[in-house]
Structure formats: C-alpha cells, structure tokens
TrEMBL record:
One of its GO terms (molecular function) is oxidoreductase activity. This is Short chain dehydrogenase. It comes from the Bacteria. GO terms for biological process: bile acid metabolic process.
Amino acid sequence: MRFQDKVAIVTGAASGIGRASVLEFARGGARVVAADVNREGGEQTVAAVKTEGGEAIFIETDTSSYESVQSLVDQAVGQYGRLDIMFNNAGVGSPLHNVLDMPVDEYLKVVSINQHGVFYGIKAAGNAMKERGGVIINTASIYAYIADRGKIPYHASKGAVVSMTKAAALDLAKFNIRVVGIAPGLIDTGIVTRWKGDEALWNKIQRAQMRGKAGKPEEVAKVVAFLASEDASFLNGHIYCVDDGAAAFKR
Ligand SMILES: NC(=O)c1ccc[n+]([C@@H]2O[C@H](COP(=O)([O-])OP(=O)(O)OC[C@H]3O[C@@H](n4cnc5c(N)ncnc54)[C@H](O)[C@@H]3O)[C@@H](O)[C@H]2O)c1
C-alpha cells in the first residue's frame, strides 16, 4: 500500500486519465478527493472506488476559478486533515480554427482551464503542503512540444504547463515539494470522442501512432502513480512523455 496514510486530489476526475488515476491512488491506499465540473461523472468515479473497497469523495470544482480550486483544497484538508498529492489534470481540447480566425473568447476559455487552472492548483496545494512536503503532478501534452494545425489555444496552454512545472519545482523545492508533469500522446478518453465519431478518421489517427493505436487511460494512471510515489523520490521539475514514442519521430 504505497499511498497508505496519503491524501490525494485529482482534478478532471469524472472521466479518462483523471478517473483512472483516482482508482490507481485509491488502490494504493490513498484517500482520494475527486474533483470535476461534471458531478455525475465524478460521483460515478467515487462509486467505482467504493466498489473496490477504497476511500474517495467528490467535490464539484471548476478549475478555471481560483476560488473554486482554493475551496477544493480547503475542503480536502478539512475532510482528511492533510494533502500529500495534487494531480492538476483537468483539461479541455481546442476549438479548431486557423490562428487568424481563432475567436479570442474561445482561446481564453481553453487557457483559463488548461493553464490558469494548473497555476491555481499549484498555488493552493503548495500552500497546503508546505509544512510537510508533497508531490504536485501537472498534465501537459506532447502538443507542448510538437504542433498540430488549428489548435493554438491548446498549444499555448500546454506549453505553459511545461514551463510552470519547472518554475514551481524550483520555488517549492525548499518545502520538499516535488513538481513534475506528464505529456500524454493520443489516449482513448472523452477528449478524443469528437474524432471517434468518424471511424475512418479515428483509424487514420491511430495508424499514425508508433504502434498503431491510442493508449488507455490506465496506462497513463500507472505512470502518474509512480511519479507520486516514493519510488520517484529523485524526480523533479521534468515532464515525462507518456505517448508510445509519438513525440519522438517524424510523421
Ligand atoms: N486524451 C488525450 O489524447 C490527451 C493527450 C494529451 C493530454 N491530455 C490531457 O489529459 C487531461 C485529461 O484529459 P482526458 O484525456 O482524460 O479527457 P477527458 O475529457 O476524459 O477528461 C477531462 C476531464 O476534465 C474535466 N474538466 C473540464 N473542464 C473542467 C474544469 N473547468 N474544471 C474541472 N474539471 C474540468 C472534464 O469534465 C473531464 O472529466 C487533460 O488535461 C488533457 O488535455 C489528453
């Protein structure tokens, strides 16, 4: 039970990578706070944990609001008395427009969730952890490193997550708080649903991967749990690609 006595918060916990990570932390003995704007999905995640005999609660949270994220952390500490692991994972995909046509309000919406939400999570969780230490994990994307057409808000936000992870690791080192990130490649979750409606397109996207298929959220959650564990005690400030090599080769 590598997370015995630990308390973890996971944002974006109603589906995909977040839900799989809640389950992984709970299996390791953590008490987990599942946070999401989607109450129904978040409560299903908690129910899945309880079915397995684990401990979790759901707190409705909008990570684009600082007040909401601070309240999440306050409630988690109020409920369980401490915070050891913060997984800043909530995110949305990009509206698809050439940069010349990208509506400013749509750009700002993505950045407020994917980028500002991670800042709020680092700030609120870091303050809650500074007496005892802890681990903060941020979800970036391989799209922080390689470009795709028509998705500038997503690129902007995920590039910022990479930079903030490094900067926060430096700021929080004196409190024994590690800050690391993951950069997933194509993972079969809610965020790619819009591509799956077109079977030929989905097959084409999968064929472009190194071994021809999307990853599963559980394959990401295992890496997240490793990064949060004592086995990763000397990992800090870096971002780990979980992409089956997608960012390593020319398409
Ligand atoms: N699936 C992929 O291919 C892929 C690739 C790279 C990065 N990512 C990143 O992984 C993270 C998790 O996404 P996923 O793939 O599991 O997709 P997903 O859509 O299954 O999960 C995202 C979750 O975030 C929640 N969310 C959205 N806005 C929110 C907000 N304002 N406040 C709180 N919760 C909010 C959604 O309700 C959803 O439950 C995201 O940051 C995403 O950008 C995913």
